[in-house]
Amino acid sequence: MQPNENSIWGNIGGLLTDAVGAYAQFETIKSQKNSTGQSRIERTYASPELDNGAAVLIEKPKTATTATQTEPLIFGIPQKTLLLGSVGLLVVGLLLRRG
């Protein structure tokens, strides 16, 4: 039983048919390029082989030199921040105890 065009399944079936048709067209173009050697030429431009036989050129990312952090970290938190937070919690605890 075929779904009618008014149901949600009919619309999904149409989408699937269109997707399969687009994929078939893509594969047709790809196979035509392979048969004429066009894809080999395109791959040559995309990733040229280097003189030493390497497939691609890999460049090491350049890292900028930055000044080292002078403040020590405690569990990944700057010492000043941790100290101020601890003092703040101590003050809050003392105020709650007196109140």
General description of the model:
The protein folds into two domains: 1-49; 72-99. The mean pLDDT is 76. It has three helices and two strands, in the order ααββα. The chain has 99 residues and is mainly alpha-helical. The protein has a two-stranded antiparallel sheet with strand order 1-2. The chain is elongated. Helices cover 59% and strands 4% of the residues.
Beta strands, count: 2
Biggest sheet: strands, sense, closure? 2 strands, antiparallel
Provide the domain count.
2
The termini sit apart by: 78 Å
* Helix content bin: 55-70%
- Residues in β-strands, percent: under 5%
- The SS-based structural class is mainly alpha
Mean pLDDT: 76
- The stretches of 5 or more residues where confidence is low (pLDDT under 50) are none
**What is the radius of gyration computed over CA atoms, rounded to a whole number of angstroms?**
32 Å
Total helical elements: 3
Secondary structure topology:
Blueprint: H1 8-36, H2 38-46, E1 73-74, E2 77-78, H3 79-98
Antiparallel strand pairs: 1-2
How would you summarize what this structure contains?
Helices cover 59% and strands 4% of the residues.
Characteristic key phrases:
2 domains; mainly alpha; 99 residues; single chain; 4% strand; two-stranded antiparallel sheet
